[in-house]
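ugh finaly. both done.
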Amino acid sequence: MKVTDASTYRILQTNLERNATKMQDLFFQGSTGLKLNKASDDPSAIQPVLTARNQITLSERFLNTLGISSDKMAATDTSLATIENIFQRAKEISVNAINSSLNQQDLDTLATEVSELKKQMLDTANAQIDGKYIFAGYSVTDAPFIENPDYDPELYDQADNSTWPVLYIGDENRTTLEIGEGEYLDVNLTGNELFLGIENSEWAAGATGLTGSTISSSGPLTPGGTGDITIQNENTTFTIPESFLTDTGDNYADKLSNLLENGPSNLSDLSSLSNYNMADGDTYSLTIDSNSTPITVTLDGSAGQEFTLAGMASALGNQLLPPNAAATSGTLPNGVSFDTTTGELLLTHSDPGTNFTLNETIVDGNPANGAPLTGIDSQFADSLINATIHPATTDLGDFSQLASYDPLASDQYQLDITSEGSTVGITLDGSAGQELTLAGLTTVLGNSLVPPDPTATAGTLPNGVSYDLSTGRLVLTGNDNGADIDLAETVTDGDLLDGPAPSPVIGGNITAYGTVDVSADTTDNTAISGAGLTNAGLSAGTLSGSVTVDIFGVLTRLEESLRAGNIDDPDGVGGGVQEGLEMLDLAADQNRRKRSQLGVKAGRIDNAIDGLEGSLIDTKMTLSRYQDADITETYNAIIQQQAAWEAALSVTGKVSEVSILDYL
């Protein structure tokens, strides 16, 4: 092959350009410190490099988020430390009040300090970080705690947070943080769990107060059994008579729940009224309110209004229709019944289980004369337990008895399902869609749905009762409110002379009742006993009181006790300083538990940060191995490549020299 001058020049030019490109790449590596600047530099390395870069970005994002959360948790822990200090000072004040001989002026001074501690607690509960409230759940833009404008010390009830001195308007949602791929962690505390003592799951379920341990229903309700039910704690006892435990409506579970929560109020013999003096202008008033119909009786010491049990009976008798001052028992116009025949004042409702409230008003006509006047029983209106209703449910079996029915003999089966006065009737007669089989039952029930669905094996009927045939058995479940399910079956033997009669399926008419669980709704231990528990589906036992408290309520009632000079009377104003000290211990424990939980989570975040930082270093080393250039090696290569390029340039110049002799 003939090599021309032109081809020689092209080869030389190509080599020069290749050397120049190589040298340019080396210069670029030297300036950037990277040997991999574009995919074509090393196609086999581009995938691990991109993976490493993505992992570095992800880790740095996690580290930034974790760092912010760690700072917020540290600030939250500072708030919890402040709460601990508040409790410590409140306990010192309580011990001082209990162990010292202080006059009322001194106690008022201590009460004022407790009031300031409560304000400090409220400020802490409404603390902010970066303009966001840290104890508000998701509602971070609004202060989660506000003072209750309707707070009334006489109505304070641990089971009803609407009566508490401070209300929570945040929510129960904790902030969840992704601390690693697929790993999540709650990183804050909500106000309801920290300050009110109500856990998030309970708050979300609509809990209205404190709860302790629970005795769950162990069996179906069977109204009309024998025996009473007695509920008792350290201060109060009430008994639900056997006569009350009867089925008088279409929701016995609800009736039983109300009886357990609002049993008969068995008050004292009114001996505490012995300190009242008509000459001083003292008066005692008791308001009994039910169905929004308050009835007030007043004792002022005059004839028929003496400060005695007889005087109370006379005053109540005058409220009867028609009035009867000699009556020792009766039913008031608002449905509340009274009975003084046992030497005590017993109040019940003519419709057992119906709520009623009691409120007393005391007028001390001459406070300087004699001992302070007290009520007949400051705790009489308190509930001792909380009752939770569960829906009625019944398993009616596989309906195999339908095999004994003969459609040719006009046998027929009918079942009426009634709840809260509404009935859904189903009929099987062997015709198409009403076959005397489980499949026919499925079709008929499905056609009772709205809209009808003959293939549905489960659904909710128009009366609120749900059915489920998916297991090959008919299971019925009632409304969430515990309403009874009344079942009535009708068996029709179409031909009395043709073989045995078809068999009943459920054995006649039956009623399925809801069930009731009970739990303590105060910090006191509460015992429940009596033969009547068996038919209530419950067992005897002691319900442990709540180990959590309403923190603001504890401080508020401590202040009230101090201002009233009530050191150790649990039935007096504020419950007494002694009880307040016990509540402060519970409150401090509550704060420590939450602080401990927060500390564990903070530790997990610190560990996650350490792990991510270590992983980030490893990933960066991996990336460096693939893309970072060895600077010394690169500059040596640049020198060598530059020398080669200069030599090639020199050779090319000589080869390409043109002389006139070449043309001679």
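ok and the 2nd:
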Amino acid sequence: MPDQLSPPDVNALLSENARLRQELEESRETLRAIRAGEVDAVIVEAEDHTKVLTLGAAEQSYQLVLAQVPHPAALLTLDGRVLQANEAFAALVHRDHDQLEGAQAQDLIAPTSVASLHILLEVGAEREAEAELLLRNATGQRVPVSFAMRPLKDNPSGPCLLLTDVTAERARDKIVSEEILAQSILDQVADAVVVCDRTGRIRRASKAVEYLIGGNPINRDFDDALPLRHHVSGDDLPLRFAEIVAQSDTRGWEVIYPHDGHVSHLILSTGFLYDTDGSVRGAVLTLTDITERKRVEQALELADRRKNEFLAILAHELRNPLAPISNGIRLLRAEQVAPHIREQALLLMERQAHNMVRLVDDLMDVSRITRGKIELKKEKLHLAEVLRVAAETSEPLMTQFGHAFTLEPIDDGLWVKGDFTRLTQVFSNLLNNAAKYSEPGGRVVLSARRDGDRIVVSVADTGIGIRADMLDRIFDMFAQADDSLERAHGGLGVGLTLVRNLVEMHGGAVSAESEGPGSGSRFIVTLPAAVAPGGDNGQEPVKAPNGSGALRILIVEDNPALAQTTGWLVEALGHDYRLAHNGKDALVEAEAFRPDVIMLDIGLPGMNGYDICRAMRQNPTLASTLFIAQTGWGQTEHKQMATAAGFHHHMVKPIDYDRLQELLAIRAKT
């Protein structure tokens, strides 16, 4: 058992222990004072000497600098522990200043930014580095902060950390980004969109607004940039911004915008922008341009009106010839009618029937041209011959109205390349028009001349003239120079449309001139001039040979009246005929009658004319029979279908009597 200590030894040990405890406490206080910057130097006493140790000047400087820096700043160790921090740093992280020293930097940021912080610490010990991290303050709020690391030469313990709160900057970036996005969206909108403040000043606008007003509208008053107008009780009144926003609902308002001599038709819709307190801070106005739609609507309304007018005119024009034909029929039925009156009635009925055919032909020609179904048979034509035939065609109408017609001498050197029939139709239409729209006893002049590489043909009259507003649309479908109820001149309003289309198909142009009502008019046709041929290639018109001998003719027609009258016609020519009203009867009659000629309608019940023709052409006994299609369909495709079915000729109802007589004469001779 060890020796026990004497009381003096115990007291000595207790005294030494107390001294050591006091020195340890003094050391801790000294260390605290050094860390707090309260000590400038430390005096160390040894047995043989005394040594004074001063704190590093650089460390004191860093401490002073941190205190003076207005931005959040701190000194860190290499592992991210906070050595020193200023008040601004403490305020940013929402922590007491005394709690920061010794705290880990990673505890001050959001978990998603920890990895970035470690990389930043590693790089920042060697060189300057910066990254944007999410700071998590004591309240739990996440704040975007720029972490900037700066290595310090005289502080080997770690870098200096500078923080910058970029919340406001990111908010500005977001606003700018949203502004750019909003403007980009506006610029993609086809409508004109205007954003105004409560005073009516334009703050934002789409590209369509610039196109509409021809300039930049930003910061201009709405009423100045877009002086809109609207119709109120028949009056055209200004529509101002204050009036627009005073309405609770302005969706679908139709307004107009006069500018640069034009008028734009717009649909206005308005929405409001509100502050957080519910007060109106501005308005969004959308303007949809419907100018083209209005133009189309007006064109459709005009076309519909003209269509209705045309139908009324058509009924009127059809009744005109039907009335004398009806009267003529009654005269022919009457017993006590002088022979010369009967003859005149027949001539009148023939003339009126011809007028109806011409009217229908004009309509069909316009339809075919519109659908591109007319093919021109172009050849070099002597213009003088074309105009002579046109003048002869119009001569009866000139005589009827008692006009003085003059065909001025035509230069023999004027040649054109075109379709003889169609060009004759053009000039006869113009002459007929001049005759109908001139008072009896008027004067009509037809002339032609060369103008460079063009030929100019003029038809002038002393007639009723043309209003100025009609000159541009006189060639439109159904247009009428005289649209009064008393219309004494007749016509469907398709003749000049036909003229224009045919002339343009020949590479030419047609125009009208007039000094106004009562001053007459002049129609001018220009055509490309053609080089004259080496010699005269004119031919005498083909004359039908006078055949002899009766033909057997089978007439197949489902309209009994038309079938019978056609039979009488061929009988009057000295031929024999039989009738059939359907395909079955036609095949039976053909086998029994052995006709020389078969006149077949196309639109028959049960079996159409094409099929009947094909069936008959298989019969050897009908090998020499002449097949003639007689139909109301006269388009090119119908003629082609008739040829393909085996028809030799195609005639449009009512058939041309002279042409039929010619075909029958040729068949009789062969």
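summary for the 2nd one i guess: The chain has six domains: 7-36+41-54, 57-165, 172-289, 296-367, 375-528, 552-669.
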